[in-house]
Amino acid sequence: MDINETLSDGLKRELKVTVPAGELNDRLAARLDQLRGQVRLKGFRPGKVPTEHLRRLYGKAAMAEIVENIVAETTRTAINERGEKAAMQPEIAMTDDEAEANEILAANADLTFTVNYEVLPEFEIAEIKGIKIERPIAEVPDEEVEERLNAIGEGSRTYEAMKRKAKDGDRITIGFVGKIDGEVFDGGSDDNTQIVIGSGQFIPGFEEKLKGVKEGEEKTIEVTFPEDYPSEKLAGKPATFDVKVKEVAAPQELKLDDEFAQKLGVESLDKLKEAVRAQLESEYGSATRQRVKRQLLDALDEKHEFPLPEKLVEQEFENIWRQVMHDVEHHGRSFEDEGTTEEEARAEYRTIAERRVRLGLVLSKIGEEAKVEVGEEELQRALYEQVRRFPGQEQQVIEHYRNNPDAVQALRAPIFEEKVVDYMLELADVTDKTVSREELLADDDEDDHDHHHHHDHDH
């Protein structure tokens, strides 16, 4: 077997591999010998089928399998022996001339193919000790606990039917048929739905125009769908709704007391407040973690500069761009609305893709050097979380992960990343800072820069 490097440019490599026809023939003979003991052919005693006969029957299929195995083996060992790691699955190219291919499959001609791949870049990990991190921490205010309790209460509020005109806060049961230009449109009709006036469940103006209606009344309501409505066909369009009022019900007094807590399976109102506070603290904790992680990744990004495998960046960019275009098509957003152009957006998202790939490689190497590992138990927990999301389909979800190494890697990657972050926070110089709830939970436009995950490069 002969392996020659035909390209070495930056991170790009190309190898040309030649496997002599003699070696193909030897492998084929060994495979046919194996088959001789396994096949049962009419007119031949077991194990006594002549080689030529076997070759006629199975030669081409056996040879196709041998070529596939040789290509996979050679590619793997050649890259390993060169002390390189491929960033992604190498691309293999061989002849597409049918006559030539048949000669190879008959073991009459040498097998030649090229292997194209990019290597992972060599780089040094910057010093993590002393990276300054400010951990923002906010106390959960009592009024937010009350707000959350009231929201839970709203969900279980009772209503009583009334024979009066509807007003704010009433729950109305209606049937309706929506039309645009006099034509009924898809999804715009329902013969039994409940709306609480003032809750903002329906498009602006709809609930407002239900004030004053009574049970049994029929009314046509005219409204306009908002410009940013998710359905492109409806966004910005004027519509009419023929409404039939079936019931007007008034809200009953909401009593947040022990009895209310017990209905929710908690022994007292105090215990319910504790549970709500704990949930809010957990949400605040997640926000703190995101802010800290963001600072850490910013610092790592600043400290590392090295060439990136183009194909990895391209793949990451495609993933991001697919989501962007999905938003453009399905949510009626446009680049102009966001104050940019498609060209500028592409450049910005390419930079984000580069950042994600760079950080993925840096985190991967830090984790490797620190011997960070994801245990079986942690994987099982993550799998259990996935399974819980699909009640009734548990078995299919488990099978999906059992048969799909990439899916398992997608479970492992975020756990690995969080463990590497923990390892770095031990070394960093972290100081706590008390902030307001608003500061902690303020939207950070940059958050989407870091939904990268540790890449698995051991193909």
TrEMBL record:
<feature type="domain" description="PPIase FKBP-type">
    <location>
        <begin position="169"/>
        <end position="251"/>
    </location>
</feature>
<comment type="similarity">
    <text>Belongs to the FKBP-type PPIase family. Tig subfamily.</text>
</comment>
<keyword id="KW-0697">Rotamase</keyword>
<dbReference type="GO" id="GO:0044183">
    <property type="term" value="F:protein folding chaperone"/>
</dbReference>
<dbReference type="GO" id="GO:0051301">
    <property type="term" value="P:cell division"/>
</dbReference>
<dbReference type="InterPro" id="IPR027304">
    <property type="entry name" value="Trigger_fact/SurA_dom_sf"/>
</dbReference>
<dbReference type="GO" id="GO:0005737">
    <property type="term" value="C:cytoplasm"/>
</dbReference>
<dbReference type="GO" id="GO:0043335">
    <property type="term" value="P:protein unfolding"/>
</dbReference>
<protein>
    <recommendedName>
        <fullName>Trigger factor</fullName>
        <ecNumber>5.2.1.8</ecNumber>
    </recommendedName>
</protein>
<dbReference type="InterPro" id="IPR046357">
    <property type="entry name" value="PPIase_dom_sf"/>
</dbReference>
<keyword id="KW-0963">Cytoplasm</keyword>
<dbReference type="Pfam" id="PF05697">
    <property type="entry name" value="Trigger_N"/>
</dbReference>
<keyword id="KW-0143">Chaperone</keyword>
<dbReference type="Pfam" id="PF00254">
    <property type="entry name" value="FKBP_C"/>
</dbReference>
<comment type="function">
    <text>Involved in protein export. Acts as a chaperone by maintaining the newly synthesized protein in an open conformation. Functions as a peptidyl-prolyl cis-trans isomerase.</text>
</comment>
<dbReference type="GO" id="GO:0015031">
    <property type="term" value="P:protein transport"/>
</dbReference>
<dbReference type="InterPro" id="IPR037041">
    <property type="entry name" value="Trigger_fac_C_sf"/>
</dbReference>
<dbReference type="GO" id="GO:0003755">
    <property type="term" value="F:peptidyl-prolyl cis-trans isomerase activity"/>
</dbReference>
<dbReference type="GO" id="GO:0051083">
    <property type="term" value="P:'de novo' cotranslational protein folding"/>
</dbReference>
<dbReference type="InterPro" id="IPR036611">
    <property type="entry name" value="Trigger_fac_ribosome-bd_sf"/>
</dbReference>
<dbReference type="InterPro" id="IPR001179">
    <property type="entry name" value="PPIase_FKBP_dom"/>
</dbReference>
<keyword id="KW-0131">Cell cycle</keyword>
<keyword id="KW-0132">Cell division</keyword>
<keyword id="KW-0413">Isomerase</keyword>
<dbReference type="InterPro" id="IPR008880">
    <property type="entry name" value="Trigger_fac_C"/>
</dbReference>
<dbReference type="Pfam" id="PF05698">
    <property type="entry name" value="Trigger_C"/>
</dbReference>
<dbReference type="InterPro" id="IPR008881">
    <property type="entry name" value="Trigger_fac_ribosome-bd_bac"/>
</dbReference>
<dbReference type="InterPro" id="IPR005215">
    <property type="entry name" value="Trig_fac"/>
</dbReference>
<dbReference type="GO" id="GO:0043022">
    <property type="term" value="F:ribosome binding"/>
</dbReference>
